[in-house]
Amino acid sequence: MQANAGQAPDALATVAAVRKLPPPAADDPRIDIAEASVAEGLSDFQREQTLAAAAAAKGAQRGKLLDAR
Predict the structure, then answer these.
(1) What is the largest CA-CA distance in the chain?
(2) How do the residues of the chain divide into helix, strand and coil, expressed in percent and rounded to 5?
(3) Which long-range contacts (CB under 8 A, 24 or more apart) does 3-8 make?
(4) Residue 56 near residue 33, CB atoms below 8 Å
(5) What is the pLDDT of residue 69?
(6) Would the N or C end of the chain have less CB density within 10 A of its end CB?
(7) How far apart, in whole angstroms, are the C-alpha atoms of residue 39 and residue 51?
(8) What span, in angstroms and rounded, lies between the C-alpha atoms of 13 and 43?
(9) Burial class (CB in 10 A: 0-12, 13-18, 19+), 68
(10) pTM for the structure as a whole
(11) Which are the contacts of 60, defined by CB distance < 8 A and separation ≥ 6?
């Protein structure tokens, strides 16, 4: 919501706060996806790609596959 409202710095601060939660919450791949979305809005495509790959790897470790439908 913050990123969509043009508040990228606030969105990144929220992501940083969520990453400080205890595991397993802090290791949720959806956090990487959320941060990747903010990176996209900032045109930081290298960061977006890195975060998307991390989310995919975490999902694969959990036995969740990407559904590209």
Answers:
(1) 34
(2) 65, 0, 35
(3) 3/37, 3/38, 3/41, 8/38, 8/41, 8/42
(4) no
(5) 54
(6) C
(7) 9
(8) 18
(9) exposed
(10) 0.83
(11) none
